[in-house]
Amino acid sequence: VTLKKFPLDTLIPDGKRISWDSRKGFIIANATYREIGLLTCETTVNGHLYKSNYLTHRQTNTIQDVQISTPSPVKLLRGHTLTLNCTATTALNTRVQMTWKYPGKTKKRASIRQRIGQRTSVAIVFYSVLTIDKVQNRDKGLYTCNVKSGPSFKSVNTSVHIYDKAFIKVKHRKQHVLETTAGKRSYRLSAKVKAFPSPEVLWLKDGFPVTEKSPRYLVHGYALIIKDVTAEDAGDYTVLLAIKQYGVFQNLTTTLIVNVKPQIYEKAVSSFLDPTLYLLGSRQILTCTIYGIPQPTVTWYWRPCNHSHSKARYDFCSNNEESLILDPDSNLGNRIESITQRTAVIEGKNKTASTLVVADSRISGIYSCMASNKVGAVERNISFYVTDVPNGFHVNLEKMPTEGEDLKLSCTVNKFLYRDITWILLRTVKNRTMHHSISKQKMAITKENSITLNVTIKNVSLEDSGTYACRARNIYTGEEILQKKEVTIRDQEAPHLLRNLSDHTVAISSSTTLDCHATGVPEPQITWFKNNHKIQQEPGIILGPGSSTLFIERVTEEDEGVYHCKATNQKGSVESSAYLTVQGTSDKSNLELITLTCTCVAATLFWLLLTLFIRKLKRSSSEIKTDYLSIIMDPDEVPLDEQCERLPYDASKWEFARERLKLGKSLGRGAFGKVVQASAFGIKKSPTCRTVAVKMLKEGATASEYKALMTELKILTHIGHHLNVVNLLGACTKQGGPLMVIVEYCKYGNLSNYLKSKRDLFFLNKDAALHVEPKTEKMEPDLEQDKKPRLDSVTSSESFASSGFQEDKSLSDVEEEEDSDDFYKQPITMEDLISYSFQVARGMEFLSSRKCIHRDLAARNILLSENNVVKICDFGLARDIYKNPDYVRKGDTRLPLKWMAPESIFDKIYSTKSDVWSYGVLLWEIFSLGGSPYPGVQMDEDFCSRLKEGMRMRAPQYATPEIYQIMLDCWHKDPKE
Q1: Which residue ranges does the record assign to the Protein kinase domain (predicted)?
Q2: 247 marked as part of a ligand binding site
Q3: What are 182-227's pLDDT values in tens digits?
Q4: 673 is an annotated ligand-binding site residue
Q5: Which tens digits make up the pLDDT trace of 83-94?
Q6: Which domains does the chain have, with CATH numbers?
Q7: 104 DSSP 8-state letter
Q8: Which residues are designated catalytic?
Q9: Which of 767, 763, 834 is closest to 605 using CA atoms?
Q10: For the whole model, what pTM was predicted?
C-alpha cells in the first residue's frame, strides 16, 4: 500500500510521524501544511490497481462574533410569543456548538431551531432561534446564548421583561416652566417617558400641531427640537402619547418662556442719519421704544460735551467723562421736565415707550437710554447738539450794499456738525465755475454751540457783484455744503418822494395819517417835523415802519400846524410839507361845564378809591404767594393737577337734582363742551323757576375733559359769591347723567359789544339823555362778530386744563324779550361808564382776595345783567383764542397782546399786578365806547418793543384827566409801582 500526495510526492511511513496500521490505514501524527491537499492511497491486487482519494484541510476554532438580533431589553406583554435569534459568525473550517441558558429551561418551555446560514469566502454564519409561546411572568429574566468551538467560547445575553398590560408613564425632566433665549441655534423640549408598547407621539403648541406651525420644529423620539429660536416660539407645548390598539393615552404640558434681549427700535433708524440739531431754548421730546422679555428696565444717562473744545465732535463727546444717571429732579445738563414710561401692545408685542422731555435746550451732549433685562442690555446714544442756528447752517447778508458801501456777510454753522468753514466767491470762466477763497477758518469766531465767520469787503464797486457762498464740511459725511447769497451792487440814487404831502383838514378828536413814501439807493431815512421841530414817537403820535407814515390819534387843537417830512441818503435829500387844520372846538356850554365839573368830582372820588384798591393789590408777592389756586395757585410750588385735586366739592351745598332742570336751546358749542340755556326749578332754595346757563360735555368726552370741567366747578365753589362776578348756582355730578355746571344767565351780552351799540346814544349827563327820542329800530344784543361761536379755553403753553367750552359771552345769541329791546334803546351817560368801571374794580378786588388771577381781563369778558349790573366772567378759566382777532400769535401761542402787561409778554409772569395793567386797558375800552386798544398800531414784535420802551395810549375820547391818570397809573413801567 502506497500513500501519495498530488502531484508527485510519496509519503513513506517512518514509524514515528507517519505509520501504517493494516486495520486503520496510514496514521499521520501532528499533520502540517505539507499534508494538506489531495492524498491518494494505492494498492495492486491480482494485477488490478485500487485507489482511494482523500482531500485534507485544516479545521479552526475561531468564533468572530455572537449577537442576539433583538435589542436588550426585550419587552413583551403576557401571553405573547418570545422569539430570540442568536447569530454566531465564525471563520471557515470551524464547527460550533450553540446552546441557550434561560429561566424555565428545566421545564423545557422553549423550542430551539438551529441552522447554518450564509457562507462567504471568509466566514460562516450559524443561527439558533429560541421560541417561547404565551410567555408568563416566570419567563422574564436573563437569556444567554453560548457558542463553543473547540477551546473557543463566546456568549451574549439579553433581558426579557414581561408586562401584564400596556402602559404610559410621563413626567417633566426638570420643571414645568422652562426658559430659553431668542437666537439660540436649537432648543430641545423633552419629557421622561416610560411606556409599552411604544406610543405614537404628537406635539402641540398652544393647541395646534407644531408641524403646521413652522418647519423649524422637528420631532425626535419623545423630544421636540426647535431650530433658530425666536420670541414667537414661546407658549404652551403639549406632548400627546397614544397606544391606540390598547386605548392608552397620556399628555404632558410644558410652558416655554423665550427671553429676548432688549431692542431699541429708534436705534436702527438713527444709525443711518446725521445727528439731529435742537434749537436753543426749545422744548424737546426724546423717545426710546423698547421691546424685550422680560420687560426691560430703562435708565437715561447724560454726558455733556466739552464746550471749550473748538473742534468738538461726536466722538469727543462720547469719550467724555463718565455717564450720569438722569431723573426729573436732577440738575445735570438741560432742565428735565419729565421722564415717563408707557407700555402698550403694538403689533402683538408688549412695547415700552420711555420719554424724556427736555424743558429748555441749552447744553450740548449725549443722551443715552439704556434698556436691560436678565438676557442683556442695549444702549442708544442720542446726539443732542444744541444750535443757535436754524438748520445748523445759515448765511446772512446784513443789507444789499450800494456802490461805495461795505459788503458784510456772515456765515454761522453748528460746530458739532460742520467744520472747515470758508467764504468763497463763485466766478464763471469759460463755462466753468471757479472758486475764489475770500476768508480762512482761523478768522472764525467760536461760541458755545456755533462757529461764525464774518467777511467785510470795504468800499464795494459794481464789479463786486456775484454769487458769494459759505462752504463747510459735514463732519459725519465728509460732504462739502454750500450756502449761497446773490449780491448785486446797486448804483446810488438820490431820494425821490412818491407823493408830496398835501394840506388837509381833520375834525377834532378824530385820527389822521400822513404818508411820506420815498425811494432811493440806499433806502432813504425819513424824518418828520412839525413847525420845524423834530417829531418823536409818543403816546398818540405813532410812526409807522421806516417812519414813512405819521399817525395822530385823537387830534387836538395843539396838533394843528405845518408838517413836513425829509427823506435823506448819501446822494442827497428831498422834503415835502403840508398844513394840518383842526376843525371844531373843545369849549363846552355852561351846562356841560357844570356837568363836566360834577363828573370830574365823581371821577376824582373814583380815582381815589381805585388808587387805594390798586395799592392794596400791589402788595409784595411774598404776602400773596402762599395759597394760590389752580390757575391761581403758584405752579412752581405745587403742580396744578395736584392743586385741583386738593379742592373739595361740597355736594350737600351745590348738588342740584337733574329732574328739576329743564334744558333749552343751545347757547354755544366747542371742541368737547357746550352751553345751553335752561330753567331751574327751586335752585338756591327759590320757590320760582329761574333761567340759568348750563355747561356740560359733549357725548364721547374723555376722562381728561371730564376732569377739566370738574376742576372748573371746584374753582367756582372755592371763589364764592359776589355781585360783580358770574356766580355758580349749582351742579349735577351724581351718576345717572352727564356732569353739568349751572351758572348765572346774563342776557344783555358782553360790555364791549354793548358799548359799541351805544355810540349814538351816549351823553355826558342824564339831562341831555332825557331829551332824546328813543330809536325805533331794534338793537341786536350782540354784534355780528359775536354771532360766531367762540371757544373759551386758553391754549398757550402756560395754561392749565382747558374748559373746552364754546359760548357767547352773553350766554345767549338770539333776540331777547321786549324788556331787552327797551334796554337796548336806552341811552347811557358818563355816570354809567364810571359805574361799570367801579363795578369791575369791585369784582376784581373780590377775585384778588380769593387769590384768583384773571389773566384776560377785557371788556369782552364782562357781561351785562339786569339793573345795569356788570359781572366778570372767565376768571381763572381757560379760553380758546384761535378764532378771536384780539389774540395775536407770539411764537407757538396766541395771546391778547393789547391787554397784556410787559412782564406777561416777555417773561410769562401773570399776577395781580398784570391784572391791574389789563384793568387800565379795560378802562380805555369803556371810555372809548368799545374801541379797540392801540388803534392803527400793528401787533408785531415792534409793538412789544415800543411798549417796553414806554409807549402808552393817548386818553380815550370820553375820559377825564383823572380817569386817564388812573390808566397811566395802571400802566406804570415798574409792576411794583
Answers
A1: 661-977
A2: no
A3: 999 999 999 999 999 999 999 999 999 987 767 899 999 999 999 9
A4: yes
A5: 999 999 998 888
A6: 2-56 (2.60.40.10), 63-163 (2.60.40.10), 167-261 (2.60.40.10), 273-303+321-387 (2.60.40.10), 390-487 (2.60.40.10), 502-583 (2.60.40.10), 646-745 (3.30.200.20), 749-768+825-976 (1.10.510.10)
A7: T
A8: 856
A9: 834
A10: 0.47
